[in-house]
Amino acid sequence: MRSLRVFLPVSLSLLPVLSAAAAAPATRPNIVFVITDDQGYGDLGFTGNPVVKTPHIDRLAAESSQLTDYHVAPTCSPTRSALLTGHWTNRTGVWHTVNGRSMLRENEITLGQLLKAHGYATGMFGKWHLGDNYPYRAEDRGFTEVYRHGGGGVGQTPDLWDNSYFDGRYFHNGRVVAAEGFCTDVFFREAHRFIRKQAAARKPFLAYIAPNAPHSPFHAPQRYLDLYPRQTPELASFYGMISNIDDQVGATRALLRELGIADNTLFIFTTDNGTASGEGVYNAGMRGKKGSEYEGGHRVPLLAHWPAAGWTRPHANAMLTHAVDIVPTLLDVAGAAAPASLKFDGRSIRPLLDPAAGPAGWPHDRMLVTDSQRERDPVKWKQSAVMSGTWRLINGRELYDIKADPGQRRNIIADHPAQAARMRAFYEAWWAELEPTFAQTTEIYLGHPEHPVVILTGHDWIQEALPPWNQQHIRAADGFAPARVGAGKGKKSKADATAVPAAKSVHTGHWAVKVVTAGRYEISVRRWPVEANHPITAPLPPGANVPGASVAFRARPGVAIPAATATLRIGGRDVASAPVRATDVAVTFTTELAAGSHQLAPVFRTADGHEVGAYYAVVTKLK
Description:
Layout: H1 15-21, E1 30-36, H2 55-62, E2 65-71, H3 76-85, H4 89-92, H5 111-117, E3 121-126, E4 145-148, E5 169-172, E6 175-178, H6 183-201, E7 205-210, H7 222-225, H8 233-258, E8 265-271, E9 299-305, E10 315-317, E11 321-322, H9 326-334, H10 350-353, E12 367-371, E13 384-388, E14 391-394, E15 398-401, H11 417-434, E16 444-446, E17 453-457, H12 471-475, E18 484-485, E19 498-499, E20 511-515, E21 519-526, E22 563-570, E23 573-579, E24 587-593, E25 596-600, E26 603-606, E27 611-613, E28 616-621
Helix pairs in contact: 6-8
């Protein structure tokens, strides 16, 4: 396999090369890129779903080029890392959605950076999920207009405290702002504001619109829930969120026409992984769903509409493609050239989307890999799919021809040993190339002038167990053995909590941090986030619920932790301890930190020896 290895020590230093390399053509198209969360190939009317109502997206499909064999990662952050860099997810350091493995390595160059260097205005709206601290945030990666929630969804641990899907607060260019309305509507509304501004300035733009819907928890405005009275409450909410997105797609296309820029705007609609909830109704005949290595976990829709290029009629292309192809394709469309030292794992698929071009010269034996790691560190062959044409090698042990067997029901590896051997050989070379990069941990910067006050959350603990990735887990005192816990991770909890007997709890996670400037630092450790301003040892009353099938993360009681002391642990060594008083909302330590890499793991400890990680820490470089 040809080497595609690229490690760039300072990615931004390459961008002036890009600016000089390609003169901007007068016809640079605007790009509106809509990517939804947890919506699968079968969760749309035009792909055959008999229940969901998506008239605007169905109309878009009737007027667009379509990829019918387009693949992503089986979960969200990995897909977004490949989509925005043109590199394999495991190369970018993003093979999980938590555990410090959802932060896009600082040596990666994003689509935002590349198009910004080519004269585009770049806006990002909704879900980023590639890091919440410098240098991993969208605003650090080439997007100059950013309106986003924290973490992987509204109400997840890095998000603003007690956010729900309605009337939330968000990060707008680094500031916290309040908004009215349902989250999807808010993100599209802000994207529309950005589009209007760029149209008035006659400046080409990239609007990357990434709603967190229809990801759970399942909430939607009541009028969308009412569209599905015959479905279960969960499905009514899931499909209601999709219909809400559909209305916003229609509104965005109408805005482009109103502004007179629809003709030279490339409008792309796609999703980030297989369905999370709709497989019981319709899954387009595929096996698997979100998280699966089978086809239903990673084959998703992609529509591309560009009137100026003639992409205005139904044109379906069945060639094998992948999210790593998106950056090369959009650079091709924009007339931009990447720096010579930047090599992509994908290639431009513009010819496949062009009804007048066709797949001439396209390699039918092309091989691609997708996998579902969701581990602290990647595991060879874990939930993997090697793809070539219609062949699928699953976990290195099962072989399917999806043309003959789209449901992947009959393993035919014994009948085609040579084909399986070729695909195994490709994977072995792919793994051997990427494996040396796995030890390159993404570290959160401390003491950087671009981000002087850093808020760390339990979402990014590096540990073997799943960390507390949403605020329900924080409220339930996840990881604290004596706590009365009402919910398991990823499961709908019962209303009444039950005591969990266990051995003494020990915190095994840490934050990987990189001290940019040596010196004296203030580290303030907290049970509750800054916005809550609540005593460490006090319980927290539940907040208000919102419409939908789920109980909002905030609508659960917050468990009290009887912490007696707080301890600052760095590099596995306890360097300082202090008592926790009943009124303390934080315990603050001051310490010297040398420049370089550190493992930061402050804990709270009870009088009888139980400990739990401080779910939040605020780190400030002192003058």
